[in-house]
Amino acid sequence: QRRVNAIPVYRVMKEVGPDHKKMFQVVVELNGAQYGPAWGANKKEAEQRAAKLALEQLGLLTVEANVE
Fold it and tell me: Quick check: is 68 in a domain?
């Protein structure tokens, strides 16, 4: 949030699967641009993955720096 000077807005685009094993598809909007989508086993995981995609696309996070 500090580098981009914008507050991200996360939107759940899809929920699929049975109630006990849902998957969530999330996009993040920043300054009017949309990044993602990203999937996760819960909303938090999907939001984190969408945020990572946004940072990579904005050049604020390199793929090499994210290797575990």
Answer: no
Residue 42, both tokens? 């819960």
- For residue 1, tell me if it sits in a domain: no
CATH number for the domain spanning 13: value is 3.30.160.20
Q: Which amino acid is at 7?
A: I
Model confidence over 43-62: pLDDT tens digits? 999 999 999 999 999 888 87
Phi–psi pair at 53, nearest 5 degrees: -60, -45
| Number of Cβ within a 10 Å radius of residue 15 | 12
Domain range for 27: 9-60
